[in-house]
Amino acid sequence: MRAADWVLVTGNPGKRREAEEVLGRAVACVELDLPELQSDRLEEVLQAKAEEAWQRLRRPVVVEDTGLELDTLGGFPGPLVKWMLRAIGPDGIARIAIERDEPGAVARCMLMLRDGGGSVLAEGSTRGVLVLPGRGEGGFGWDPVFQPEGETRTYGELPAAVKSEIGHRGRAWRALLEKLRAA
Amino acid sequence: MRAADWVLVTGNPGKRREAEEVLGRAVACVELDLPELQSDRLEEVLQAKAEEAWQRLRRPVVVEDTGLELDTLGGFPGPLVKWMLRAIGPDGIARIAIERDEPGAVARCMLMLRDGGGSVLAEGSTRGVLVLPGRGEGGFGWDPVFQPEGETRTYGELPAAVKSEIGHRGRAWRALLEKLRAA
Question: Beta strands of B61-103 (E only): which ranges?
């Protein structure tokens, strides 16, 4: 039986809302300035973050990390997308993919629960295309330029319930809940 | 007076050779599997590496980190270039810059000496353009596709002494030596 009293480590109100959408309840969050490991593997970044958060708080934590893998860059930048976003913004990222006629990308989210019993990892991913101009006021980060497969709307345009249903983060949360139920 | 008995933390024979070229003597190296911090600032990456190396070895260390800042990506990927290199290789990186008619880039190297007295930071940078096809068998990493300003040869084609003279790493080493002499 895993602890149910975990806190979500994030300072991002968008990530909090998406967790609450899936869980159907308020989620306690803690903002920690966690150093992140340089890696192209989400799981590695997450493991280090979960360990650090657990050491600091000594209570069950859920940490999250998200990557955007561009087809045209062989999967780069993945978890390093936050730095690319900072350098050239969502439109800059989309422009590279579109200019090269390879607009495909995978949005990936991993969640890790860490408590005294160890850790549980869950993943969700969504394939889509990058589009310009960006559309929609919802979401955050690169949401306005990411259009999930099978959709005509971007993450930025999707109602929260739909984004949760088909989005990478919603899928990761449901996968985590399922694992916790099964544990 | 700073310690002269530092070791260089690197497992890269090319980096070792370039240090020896400037110092004019053999350089003792130690390969440590140091975790690197995610950041777009070389100095931040280096500070964490130096601290970790010092804690592990408890002897004076010099750590190094290098970045490649593409004009066309607003300075990205900087210190994260190793992951981009892994994903799409030197040619892939050069292609993005050339396709967009913005081939300019800055190669930057930072060195940090850490000993019991604290740390000393030195930097060297070289402006250039990315070229395709890559040329030359010398150097390593993206050397074949980087042509320093004022040169018709790439880093990969330059004799070691010339690369040391005008290259980012040679400049960083000379800056470090100067600071140590002045200290």
Answer: 61-70, 77-78
